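note to self — DONT lose this again. spent like an hour looking for the file last time. sequence + predicted structure for the chain T wanted, 512 res
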Amino acid sequence: MMQGDWALKLFSKSVLKQQKFSEIVNYLNHTEHLKGLDIGGDNGVISYLLRQRGGEWSSADLNATAVDSIRQLVRDRVYRIGESLGQFDDDSFDVVVIIDYLEHIHRDGEFLKEVYRVLRPGGEVIINVPHKKNTLLRKLRLLLGQTDERHGHLRPGYTLEELQALLAEKFELISYKTYSRFFSELTDTLIIAGMDLLAKLKGQPAHAENQEVSKGNLVTAQDLQKNRKAFKLYSYIYPVVRTFSFFDHFIPFFSGYKLIVRARSTKTKPAFVYSIECPDIETASDDYAGRFASKAGKWFLQIQETATQKMLSSIPTGSVLDVGGGHAQLTSMLLQQSQELIIHGSALSCSQRVTAEHEAGKLEFVVSNVFHLPFEDKSMDAVLAFRLISHIHKWDVLIAELCRVARHAVILDYPTVRSINYFAPMLFEKKKKVEKNTRNYICFDEKELFRHFNKHGFEITDRYAQFFFPMVLHRMLNRPRLSALLEGITKILGLNRWLGSPVIIKAVRRDI
């Protein structure tokens, strides 16, 4: 068995681990040029997958069994830690990912101070913990012997307020959400109960007695080999497990049993500025434009343009700024709609697709860091940003900058987790085979996104969810009439409104 194969096999049959990794990736985004530390990688599969995404990673965990398992997968830069990070120097990492670890240690607040120490100025921490909820499902677990002690938990988890209080001294909370709702968790509870029953019938202990209690049950390569028949049996029923867990999507109004947050270190350097992120260099390229050259691609752009034009029709458009608009997907419409059009790009190369209009004096092209737009506060009637925010790691900083410049409204698009995009990280390789030049992207929890607009004095007034079916399916069909028929049916059924993606929104300034 090749390195990593056993862990990926387990991962492919674990709904909870897949959800966890998906949420981490959503907050992590691009890591190619980052130095990261993952803590609590369990049997090592998340450590392994993070390293596959690029960057220079170190890994750490609490007990010897976990550390050995991680080391088998990733080989080097694996450390055993406790409640400090003494192995690492100050300002060592751009990002720290803490996975189900805080609930296992006594001094969680002191540990987060250590995380602050090893993070570079402006560095970020992503923390995944159990979400503390006193529910009937928790009572069922306790009744079945699935206690905090068995899992090595010193506390049952955290509420958002408790975690926020721990972070408050050293970090600014950027994003948070709960996930893994009733159906996923009930399934996991029943699977563990079934395994316990099977072990009891064989006269074995319900869980490995020789494992260190500090991290609870841990499935290693040796465990998988020893229980390969049980795993094979479980593989047969996995499709049922997967289907049952999918019902979580129909109860979005309930909070989940897992809590994940993203926070930024308040540590700064003199004259500290955010590093440049420039995904629009890719979207302004001919290669990217080729993705929309087919019949399906042109249909996508038509729907996007119609929805955007409708949103612009109800606000002043004397001056319009299209941030990252070198893709030119909306340029023709914006020239007709506005008196003054400015296209922004992260580099001069982003102007190639609007060169003719620029040279003819129809629009202005400016180059700057996307986090520092060269415009006065409230200087542009409308600010647009398409094909951009889902590829920006510090998207909250981008929103703040768009809102600063906009006099009346901000219009942008994004993929939402409340759609098939939720599974994007897991399906990325298959998607890449079809689309060839696709990129990783962030899927947004809309409540979280809207909260940031609200923070800057903007209110969401318009929302348009474009497609119920994944865009890659429409690309494969390449038959716009058939796609329009399929989307028309789901729209009548109300599915697009709730499960459609990507979404276009208009946020309007409240004080105008």
